[in-house]
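Supplementary notes for students who missed Thursday's class. We covered one full example, reproduced here. Read the sequence, then the structure, then the short commentary at the end.
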Amino acid sequence: MTISAAVYWTVEGKVLSDAEQRRLAEIESALRADDPSFVQRFETARPDRRRRRTIGAVLAVVAAMTVTVVGLVGGSVAVAVFGVTAIGAAIGIWATRRDA
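Structure (token representation):
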């Protein structure tokens, strides 16, 4: 089985053939022509989702840092370790882009 050098779109990790890419482009063009307001909702949704994700991650890191400081000031190693772990988890969740 040979794969064309022009193949670059993927769906769920599988490479689309040239014919599938053309068909997908036709469907997209038809959708843009038939219902531009529907298409507009999806095109503008991505920045909002990224912004919410970033704000949520920043708030989670700030909360985790607060827990860490409270644990250190209060002398509780377990709370401090939990806070540091929460910081790592928040950054890891933010860094893992599912909407790309």
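Commentary. Confidence is low (pLDDT under 50) at residues 1-7. The longest strand covers residues 10-11. If anything here is unclear, bring it to office hours.
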